[in-house]
Specification:
about 240 residues; alpha/beta; nine-stranded mixed sheet; 8 helices; about 30% helix; about 25% strand; globular
Amino acid sequence: MKDEVCELWSGGPRFVQGPSFALGTDSVLLGDFARPGRAETGVDLGCGSGILTLLLLEKSDRLHMTGLEINPRAADAARENLALNGWEERAGIVTGDIRDASALFRAGAFALAIANPPYFPAGSGARSPDPERCAARSEETLSLDELCEAAERLLRTGGRFFLVHRCERLGEVFVSLAGHGMEPKRLRLVQSGIESAPGLCLIEARRGAAPGLVIEPPLLLRGPDGAESEEIRRIYHR
C-alpha cells in the first residue's frame, strides 16, 4: 500500500511518513521555535523523513538545507518529501552517521543546525523491538554529547543550534552544549496546561557566544478550557 501524502496545514509542505519515523508534535514545535534569520546554510542532524527540513525551508526562501540521516529508508523518504514540494534544488539528503560528520562535511560549513534527538539514555526504559523506533527513542547509536560534538564541528562561529529535549535532561543538555563551545541563548518550556509541569524544552544555542540566556514564556498546548491553545492553533494553521 502506497504511503498517503499529507499536509501539516492546507497549502503547507507536503510529506509522506513511514510508521517508524512518523511526524511528532515535538518536531512541529521545534520548527516553529527555530529562527532561520538570514542564515543561508543549515543542517538537520538526524533528519528522519525530513519534516524539520521542510518546515525551515517553508520559513526562509534564502535557506539551503542539508539533511543527515543514518537510516536509508528514512533518507529516501526525506528525498521523496523534497521532491513532493519541488525543493530538490534547495536541499539535499546525505545518508550517513552523525558521528562521522567531520568526515562528511568541512568544519564550519553551516550557519544553522537543528535536531530532534533521541531523548533517553541507552539502556533506560522499555526497549522497542523495532530497531528503527529504538534508535529514534534512545541513545543506542548516538549520545547527546556526540550530537553536540557534531554541531560544534559543523557550525561556524556565531552559528545557531536549535534542539528539543526532555526537561528532565535539561541540565545535561546545557553541560554538553557548554562543553562543546555553544552557549544557550533561548529557552522555552512546553507544558500541557498552565498548571502542568513542563515536559519538553526548546533550546537555541550559539557557537562561541557570550553568556546570556533568555527564558521565554511557556508554550501551552491547551487553554484553561482544555481545548487547544491559541498558539497551538497558530502553529498548526488551524
